[in-house]
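chain and backbone:
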Amino acid sequence: MMKTCLIVDDSAVIRKVARRIFETMNFKVGEAEDGEKALTACNETMPDAILLDWNMPTMDGYDFLRALRKVPGGEKPKVLFCTTENDVGAIARALHAGADEYIMKPFDRDIVTAKLAQVGFHGEADAA
């Protein structure tokens, strides 16, 4: 079974970069530009992993995460939240709201691979 990942970010550039990274790791990738659209996507098909931006219009990462963890099956996805500011408070809030790990922007494939390994996705990457 192919693993699935939902990339939630209001930046099309970040979504494109992240999509490329996850696709090299054999994930089937979906995208959403805000928390509201992400929640709709999760209600249709719950992904295995979610790369979640923190600051977004409409519904931010924090509100999305709290809502996600309350829906049936919403405890299943491993959530990696992305943040630009090295803000310990934001990181603590995210982990408290149910994030599994966090990634600082800008990120690259090595960082994503390492964080995914930490939350239990091992060895899915193609030999580069």
